[in-house]
Amino acid sequence: MAESPESSGLGGPSPEQAAAIRRHLQDIISSPAFAGSKRAQEFLQLVVEHALNNRADSLKERMIGVEMFGRPVDYDTANDAVVRVKATEVRRRLAQYYQGAPRDSTFRIELPVGSYVPRFVSLQEKAGLASETGAAPVSAKSLPETPSSLDRAGSAAPVSSRPGSWRRWAVVASVLALFLVAGAVAIQKWWGTFFSSPIRSVAILPLVNLSADASQEYFADGMTEELISELGQIPTLRVISRTSTMTYKGTKKTIPVIARELRVEGILEGSIEREGNKVRVIVQLIDSRTDDHIWAHTYERDIGSILEVQSQIARAITDQVRIELTPQQAARFNRPRQTNPASLELYLHGMQVLNSGNPRAAVEFFQQAIAEDPDYAPAYAAMANGYGWMGEAGWMSYAEAFAQQKAAALKAIELDETRPEPHIELGLVAMNRDWDWSTQGKEFSRALELNPSSASVHWAYAQYLNRVGLANEALAEAKLALQLDPVSSRSHMNLSFVYYYARQYDEALAEIERAITMHPDPAETVFPLSIIYVEKRDYTRAIHEFQKMGNLPHGLGHLGNAYARSGHKAEATAIVPKLKEHVDKTGVGRYEIALVYAGLQENDKAFEWLENAFQARDKGLTYLKIDPCLDPLRSDVRFARLVRRVGIPTS
User: Fold this and answer.
1) Whole domain around residue 80: which residue ranges?
2) Is residue 27 part of a domain?
3) Where is 500: in which H helix or E strand?
4) How confident is the model over 531-552, as pLDDT tens digits?
5) What is the pLDDT of residues 245-270, one digit of tens each?
6) What is the DSSP letter of 430?
7) What's the CA gap between 571 and 24, in Å, rounded?
8) Which end of the chain has the smaller Cβ count within 10 Å, N or C?
9) Maximum distance among all alpha carbons in the chain?
10) SS3 605
């Protein structure tokens, strides 16, 4: 009889058996199945050594996360899937190893689903050699001296008439009953899942960086953003925007709580691990309505083809949630996406900097990415975004910023017409520089067609509707953007602007206060808060807020308008020379001087500077129909003529 490693009564393997298991472990981790995954090797070694040394009690998810992955003791295991995804990978690699393993192995190491305690199954019994007691699996969770023929190389224990056999049959009957119950539950669960309403809204949580190098966070965040963009192309699936999902990076909130806050039916979570030029992505889709895991998969690629993984994941998710793709959509997901690794790295660095609010520094990264690969469309699209941002903020001359924005957007479209981002940028250039209102509508519509889940596209289209005077339609579009980006301060700030131009100042103030509560960043919220205070005639608070903006031309123009309307004419007049300095240096400030004179009710001077702005194609004139600061001029016949000359369509 082959002695079970636990039949000695010691509750664990003998020293000889433990040595044999360790030798087998070394065979496994040095095999092709585990090659190239240092983390998977370390994970398997950790759980095996703990089990062999009678420390199975420490093989809990939290304790493994602390010991192996350096997580804090109180980290949120419900939301941080680092241990679960790595265990899934180890199980897959073990199955791959044993498919081609030599048949004379002494043991088989298993990692049961739902547990981190390994099982060591004895395979010593040869064909034709049967034993009534048999060799029980060595597991820190199995009961000592409990016979099990189910784990022995497939042989069944013979029927025995010895006393105690009825007990064994009772045990077998109990096990079979448990299997039947479990099977019934599984079938019921499958039946309910299959016939439940399909998932039609998804949030992709930030991929967990499992790389040994913590500086690779930018890479994990960039891959998350690319996946969101890729999945957002499916018109029948609502995908939450990056700015909302990134707020859950490192959160301790559970999946159901996150799903409720984002109002989604599905959550995609996972990890990314980079080892040299190799990248491994592990993802799993969860039905947040039932907290059931629907699907999981591991992808391994060279960095040059990593973007193809995003398309494959998106395609797999559509299959799992039963969405029928059009031939065009399927072709897009199946397209080759080889990338120059150096260009990709620079692009992702640039996106991290851009998302942190520094478009000038980001543009430098995008320029370097293009130098590495002149045909890399995403870098051109992102560079267009950076230039447009600087132009709209008045941080760069309108002429230079918008010319660069248009050139980069056109190049991106030439290289890849199916990306929505450059169409947004081209539409914004048509609005801010060219005053080409038909092109704006066409480009924004094309961007929405390419990615209906992009909050950025909906917001850009809301701006267009706003400036042509369609306030109700603009509000509807801005609210759609908010549904796609519900926990982002920027979404509430954007909605605040739309309410402001619709003259709904109480609603505008409520939205900007929500934005401040969510993310109190004065650099973003001080301007909208100030202009709302002005229209609510709270001039003291408005002036106090404007002064926080320093010498920026946009803030100065509205500060002068506020001074004038509050009766401080000398202070308002003193603003004009400062703005003229900006005009001389950067060309920005003509429209803002007109605002000061409008507040002072010096209409002739206001129209003089509006004409000056027209000749310079100042982007401020695109606000002619909606800017409350110009209300004192609207009854003048010169105003209607100017609106027609700018070409703004009539409502």
Assistant:
1) 1-129
2) yes
3) helix 489-501
4) 999 999 999 999 999 999 989 9
5) 998 988 888 888 999 999 999 999 98
6) I
7) 84
8) C
9) 114
10) helix
